[in-house]
Amino acid sequence: MTDFKSFDLKDAEYYFNLIIQTMRKLFLLLSLVIITTSCSSSDNEGSGKTDKGSNSFAPPEWIIGTWKSNFGGTYTFTKDDIIYGAGGTKTSTKEQVATLKKAGIEVSVKETKNNSSYSADYKFSEATVTFSFTKTSDTVIESTGFLDGTYTKQ
Fold first, then answer.
1. Which of 11, 91, 110, 148 has its CA 20 to 30 A from that of 56?
2. Residue 41 falls inside a structural domain
3. Region entry Disordered: which residue ranges (predicted)?
């Protein structure tokens, strides 16, 4: 008969953080592969409410601040950045855009926002990262894009 170990919250947090760190490393590895192997292209399809060619983030006022999930994932929104993290590691999309642009990679950000939802498609080379948030109350948002889950305002 197999003896199953019961998991407690610390085990769940450990594995969640391990998965997030692995996802981040894979994302960075994919970015490096794309940077080193991609050719320049001009893709100017215009959808979303941001002007064509935008390469910065502008989250709406209602989402500005730090939000935390019950598994330790965080989002911090500023007037011009989305900073996400888990397990003590934080990544700034503003810094990622600057690094990609410095490497000669074309970057575009297409945002859609209103008083209860915010989404941003962050595209570079052939990759797209989607951030999508719905406000369920003044202190709770649901993420259905990258790092999905329920987040509470801190």
1. 148
2. no
3. 39-58
